[in-house]
């Protein structure tokens, strides 16, 4: 998620060149256009009608390459990394976060497909005694270190690159935050080193890597709230609200992380059955118009929104709602 205060525009030039070089690789593996009405049966999904460009004030942004109608599915996105919350650990699929009908005392997968896709990182994860790390995170009320733990196992198993989140913007960290992260890193490394995981598989796991990954996860992760049912039912109600207990985990995506914030967004992100995100237009969007999501609860008053955005994302919002005191 972009933030004006975190980095100057010039600091985006190098990462953005990297983004341009891998433009096709970024858009197609992680997001694709799936509006059934616009695709013929058995036809390959079309590329999403968007492009990532630099903005004048907020770094990267996502813009429409053609007119998008209200209610259109713009694209879907699979996560780079995800993890269930502690409270939902035993009643959702450990890979796709789909809710399960039965609650168990052990890790569950909703299908053989999910079990197969999780096979590599889970083969590392299940060999480790995470009790010290998990206990620390539970007591501190931490959720983002769970994503780092999952990513570390993915990298160690070869399922992901250690640099897979480098393109994303990092949060600005205080000295106090860095000290806490160093404690978390020590716990994570200790857990992994007390196993039969090979040293060469763990060569990437440095303090710098841990802090860099966590700094990116802090402002680019999404709380996954499963709505259930049909998206159209939610869309017709004008706001896709879900129960607090619908939150089943957190996830980081590539393309959705490039969307900037607006307290009056023109697109919305929703999860229906699992961790795969769907982005739809909340109103008609013209070609060349920037697509924006709302990072927080848009129903909050102006002061609350400004406080949360500044403390959580490092910027003060200057959207039309905030400018006019709405």
From TrEMBL:
Taxonomic lineage of this organism? Eukaryota, Viridiplantae, Streptophyta, Embryophyta, Tracheophyta
Keyword tags = Methyltransferase, Transferase
InterPro entries xref list: H3K4_H4K5_MeTrfase, SET_dom, SET_dom_sf
Which CDD domains does the record match to this protein? SET_SMYD (cd20071)
Organism, scientific name: Thalictrum thalictroides (Rue-anemone)
Which GO biological-process labels does this protein carry? methylation
Q: Which PROSITE patterns match?
A: SET
What one GO molecular function would you report for this record?
methyltransferase activity
User: What protein am I looking at?
Assistant: Histone-lysine N-methyltransferase ATXR4-like
**Gene Ontology CC entries for this record:** nucleus
Family matches, as PANTHER family: HISTONE-LYSINE N-METHYLTRANSFERASE ATXR4, HISTONE-LYSINE N-METHYLTRANSFERASE SMYD
Q: Which residues form the SET domain?
A: 48-296
